[in-house]
Amino acid sequence: MINIAKILLSFVLILSDEKLNKEVEKILKEILYDANKFEFVILSAPNSIESFSIADKKEIKLIGDKCYIPIEIIEKNSKKRAIVTATLKIYKNAYKAKRDIRKGEELSKDLFEQVEIDIAGLKFQPIYSIDDIDCHRAKLNIKANEILLSNFLERKPLIKRGDQLIGVFESQYVQVSLTVFAREDGRMGDLIRVITPEKKLYKAQIINEKTVKLIGE
Predict the structure, then answer these.
(1) Dihedral pair phi/psi, residue 134, rounded to 5°
(2) How far is CA 84 from its chain centroid?
(3) What is the pTM assigned to this prediction?
(4) How confident is the model at residue 16, as a pLDDT?
(5) Which of 159, 190, 196, 209 could form a disulfide with 200 if both were Cys (CB 3.0 to 4.6 A apart)?
(6) What is the model's pLDDT at position 15?
(7) What's the CATH number for 164-216?
(8) Long-range Cβ pairs for the range 4-8 (8 Å, 24+)
(9) Is 108 exposed, middle or buried (0-12, 13-18, 19+ CB in 10 A)?
């Protein structure tokens, strides 16, 4: 004998699943508007949802390759909250290295090529633009075909170890300039060690690519 109740219940659940998938897809399109595309699979959700709505969008969390979406379930005259969990694949354009790159090597556009990758679950953010890559160097070794991530690069120093500089000492009554050499790399405003031709060491603040302000020994 055909169990009409089970058939009706199955039909309701199918409609419910379809609605849930459509609502999740809709909200993900809003959140992931800058992605090339995305894919998702609902991992867990309350059973037998007949009527529901997405709760506060601000409470939606993307953690790794998982998305946690709060929903509000309407049952007769009451409402209750629940969480829908989905696994994600998020595709964006990023860059990969064409060859091995050594730590400290200055970077340029011709070292990388654009590829579409799934960024969900990456520990560090990929680099999406290399327009200013010439201002950076490799912070660590990068392997061929490895995706360029934010922790892989650092801005090139304004001054490099060994650079000849003008060291300036100023007081209320006098200003003295002398030749010094950088003992370490540094950027604008950094404190570095410098040394005179007579081997006298000073601390100095970087003013520009040729000048440092001597602070003390």
Answers:
(1) -65, -15
(2) 25
(3) 0.72
(4) 54
(5) 196
(6) 38
(7) 2.30.30.760
(8) none
(9) exposed
